[in-house]
Design goal:
- The protein has helices at about 5-35, 40-95, 120-145, 155, 165-185.
- With about 190 residues, the protein is mainly α.
- Helix 1 (about 5-35) packs antiparallel against helix 2 (about 40-95).
- It starts with 6 loop residues before the first helix and ends with a helix.
Length: about 190
C-alpha cells in the first residue's frame, strides 16, 4: 500500500504536482531570460522545496500510521490468544470437576486467606484464573477505549460473584469471536 490511503490524498497529490508543473511552465521563460536567479525563479525554487517538504511529511505520517495499525493488530491478537487460553482452561476445569467450578470467578470458590486454610488444586487454579481474568478484562477494556471501539461486550458486564461457568464460557467465546473480527478489520 502506498503512503497515501484515501482518494482525497491522491487528489491532493495530483493537484500539487499539477500546480508545480503550471508554475514551472509560467516561470521558465523568465528564469531563462534572467539566468535562473530572478524573483520568479526564487519563488519557484521555494515552491519546489515546500512541495517536497509536504511530500516528505506525508510519507512519514503514512509510515507511522502503518506502524500503529500493526501494533494495534498485535495487541488485539495477544488479547485474543489470552481469551482463548482462559476459555480452554475453564472448559478443562468444568470437565474435570464441574461441582466445584459452578461460580469460577466468585471468591466463594476458594478458601479465605484469613485465617489460612488448606487449598485444593482446583481452588488454586480458580483463584489464579480469577486474577488472570481480572487483568484480562482490565487490558481489554483499556484497548477498546484506546482504539475507540464502542461495541457492547457481554464479558465486560459479567458479575464476578454471580457468573456461572456456562455464562463465562459463552461470554469468552463471544469475545474471542469479536476480537477475531476486529483483528481482520485492522
Amino acid at each position: 500500500m502506498p503512503w497515501f490511503s484515501t482518494k482525497g490524498q491522491i487528489a491532493q497529490l495530483i493537484v500539487a504536482i499539477g500546480g508545480l508543473i503550471f508554475a514551472g511552465v509560467k516561470a521558465y521563460p523568465e528564469m531563462k531570460l534572467y539566468g535562473f536567479f530572478s524573483t520568479t525563479a526564487i519563488l519557484f525554487y521555494m515552491l519546489i522545496v515546500f512541495v517536497g517538504f509536504a511530500a516528505l511529511v506525508s510519507i512519514q505520517q503514512g509510515a507511522r500510521y502503518k506502524a500503529a495499525r500493526k501494533t494495534s493488530a498485535l495487541a488485539f491478537w495477544m488479547l485474543r490468544e489470552k481469551c482463548d487460553f482462559l476459555l480452554r482452561v475453564y472448559r478443562q476445569i468444568k470437565f474435570d470437576d464441574p461441582a466445584k467450578c459452578k461460580f469460577p470467578l466468585s471468591s466463594s470458590s476458594w478458601p479465605s486467606l484469613d485465617p489460612p486454610a488448606v487449598w485444593t488444586q482446583i481452588q488454586l487454579k480458580l483463584y489464579d484464573l480469577s486474577n488472570q481474568f481480572g487483568w484480562f478484562i482490565l487490558m481489554s477494556r483499556k484497548a477498546f477505549e484506546e482504539i475507540g471501539w464502542k461495541d457492547h461486550v457481554e464479558l465486560f458486564q459479567l458479575d464476578r460473584q454471580r457468573a456461572t461457568i456456562i455464562e463465562l464460557e459463552t461470554a469468552l467465546e463471544a469475545f474471542k469471536n469479536l476480537l477475531s473480527s476486529k483483528i481482520s478489520s485492522l
